[in-house]
Design brief:
With 48 residues, this protein is mostly helical. The protein is 31% helix and 0% strand.
Length: 48
């Protein structure tokens, strides 16, 4: 989802389809950040 907060401050109109280049750029930035974040620790099973 992508919103133009200047013209749509209540975030009612998704403009992602009109701006695929922005979505692609943001996805690339997210992927770069995610590559540097360690995965969450696995939940330990409780002993019965």
């Amino acid at each position: 989802m992508l919103f133009d907060l200047e013209s749509d401050p209540s975030e009612q109109h998704n403009v992602a389809k009109e701006h695929p280049e922005v979505i692609e750029r943001l996805q690339g930035l997210f992927d770069q950040m995610a590559a540097h974040v360690p995965p969450p620790p696995q939940a330990k099973k409780r002993a019965k």
